[in-house]
């Protein structure tokens, strides 16, 4: 796969996911989330992982807490299934997500969602012991999945790519995309892969 830069990302996302995302509720369907996660990990592995001496990082911006949980579960599932050693994901959101937030019961088994469990960023990040911004610094954590929290006001200079799964506009768009603006030695390119916003 060739490197996909900012100017190409809207075309790609429109081609693959525009119709699906316009359906609204299917935006967080586990199958769609899993397909996006597979794309994200493949794109990251091929184009981003080797940058900044192997320390480049990514942010996945989701449309809400239930989506963030599904992305995290899908990331962990894919990483485990493919025995990937070069990538680990953290998820950040406030509060808790209860099982009824995930949709129909027949969809829950796909990602291993426990219908009796309340999901928090603490139980989804079992190896993280402190502030997630500091936990994200070691090279083993390559992806931060966010739902509002850390979407803005989070400065990580090794952030090279952002995968947008949320509609953003105006000041929010500027503040969100500005996460990529921080300089770092050797950082001479950034990427935005946009799954949902119109060009």
Oligomer: single chain
Secondary-structure element series: HHHEHEHHHEEHE
Q: Report low-confidence residues grouped into runs of 5 or more.
A: 1-27
User: Which structural class is indicated by helix and strand composition?
Assistant: alpha/beta
- Report the sheet with the most strands, covering strand number, pairing sense and barrel closure: 5 strands, parallel
Roughly what fraction of the amino acids lie in strands? 5-15%
- Radius of gyration in whole Å, from Cα? 16 Å
Would you count the extended β strands for me? 5
Q: What percentage of residues falls in helices of 4 or more residues?
A: 25-40%
Spatial order of the strands in the main sheet? 2-3-1-4-5
Tally of DSSP helical segments: 8
Provide the residue-averaged pLDDT: 81
Global shape: globular
- Terminal Cα separation, in Å? 23 Å
